Amino acid sequence: MSKKRINEIILNFSEILLKVFVKFNLSYLSSLVLFINLRRVKKIYSPNIKKRIIILAKSGGLEDILSAYKNPDDNNDIAYYILPRFLIKIIFNKFLKNEIFQDYSTNDASENITNKKKAYKLFIKKTFLKLNKFWKFDALISFNPFYYAENDLPEPIKDIGKKFLILHKESVHSPAEQETIFKTYRDQNKKNLANKVAVYCEYEKKFLTDSNLFESNQLEVVGCARSDYSYEMRQEKPIENKIVYFMIETDRNNMSDEIKKLDKESVDNWFNLADFTIKYLIEYAYKHPDIDILFKGKWGVHSLEDLPKNLPQNCSFELGNPGHKFLKDAKVVICFNSTILFEAILANREVVIPNFGIDRLKVDKFIFKSPNKFVSSKETFFEMINKNLSNPYKIKDFSVDEKECVDYYLGNSDGNAGARLKKFIEKNI
């Protein structure tokens, strides 16, 4: 039996046991369930363990921590252990049964809910206190202050003398999304009691303070650590004839609903943009059979059905994350309204942003702050691709607008966010 299968069995059995133990308020047995599900992060080198940190792992957040410790350090005395987030959700849902919750809505809707959360926090306190008696730990890390089951964790964890850190991993939003998100922060959530919170950029810090959810001294801007990988990619020469198109998302969050409030022409053009980009790239592929074009889709958003049935032989389709993995070989990156734009800039890849038929004045607030890499016609699209493919690879400095955009969203135009994150964690535990 494989190790993966064994872990799956343990998790399934743990879920059953934990529900029973919580039901009968058995905090010691619950702590044992948590303990047997802790998994050491072996990719982080720690030869002399003095401190242990539990992380409620989440995609993106874990990659940030791994980036912070990518270089072996004989002085590192911190070991990291993953605790599956769903176990915390099980405990929460047992105490808040018959209540409906969602992320980014952590306010207590009634006194009854407040009382149920008090019981939940008391059980968490008892469970982690008992865990600490036979397995000492120093801190807990979450990756978002708005996860409904984790929002109330800081108080009981701090009550037992441990630190609670949040490495907030969200920051890339269009101006329209920023408006909506700020209102959500302010109106649907309550103050968070985490010891310290690391954020990617200055505007996210401002959002979190202006919404009265955090005090300014709780927050520190460190940058997006996992984007260090893209910065380091600058030293790697891409494949000269490789184009990667990161396929457009037409309904990012509530964007499509907001766009529908515009005139019909704007709506049609917005959604036609994705179709035109595919059509033009297929045409380009037929004209240039020596150029390889990868259509990179996103899980749950794109599929092979989004492309013509009979693709040219020099075209291929892939799904997968993380996106920066596909940057390595790309001489030219084509994208629109995607975080991969900033990763591509960091990686020193040539970027082209399709803008076919879109009235920028009408939809500008739905588009990320971007460098001027937009092309609005098929002819200029092809010309830009040809020019970028023909340019010999050379590591160049960021332009003023490239640096401004990268720092605005990722806070990491120097490629040192991982080092800042490592320092942040170590000084705050």
Short description:
Helices cover 43% and strands 13% of the residues. The protein is of the alpha/beta class and 429 residues long.
Provide key terms for this protein.
globular, 429 residues, Rossmann fold, 2 domains, six-stranded parallel beta sheet, 43% helix, alpha/beta, seven-stranded mixed beta sheet, 16 helices, 13 strands
**Which architecture of the largest domain per CATH?**
3-Layer(aba) Sandwich
What is the gyration radius calculated from CA atoms?
24 Å
Shape: globular
SSE pattern: HHEEHEHHEHEHEHEHEHHEEEHEHEHHH
Structural class: alpha/beta
Q: Into which percent range does the helicity of residues fall?
A: 40-55%
Number of strands: 13
Number of helices: 16
Mean pLDDT: 92
What is the name of the CATH topology of the largest domain? Rossmann fold
Beta-strand percentage? 5-15%
Q: How many independent structural domains? A: 2
The CATH class of the largest domain is identified as Alpha Beta
Q: CA-to-CA gap between the ends?
A: 39 Å
Lateral strand order in the biggest sheet: 1-3-2-4-5-6-7
Largest sheet at a glance? 7 strands, mixed
Low-pLDDT runs: none
Break the fold down into its secondary structure elements and pairings.
Layout: H1 3-23, H2 27-36, E1 39-40, E2 51-55, H3 61-68, E3 78-82, H4 85-95, H5 111-134, E4 139-142, H6 154-159, E5 163-167, H7 175-188, E6 196-199, H8 202-210, E7 219-221, H9 228-232, E8 242-246, H10 255-259, H11 264-287, E9 292-297, E10 315-319, E11 332-334, H12 340-346, E12 350-354, H13 360-363, E13 374-375, H14 378-390, H15 400-409, H16 417-428
Parallel strand pairs: 2-3, 2-4, 4-5, 5-6, 6-7, 8-9, 8-11, 9-10, 11-12, 12-13
Antiparallel strand pairs: 1-3
Helix pairs in contact: 1-2, 1-4, 2-5, 3-16, 12-15
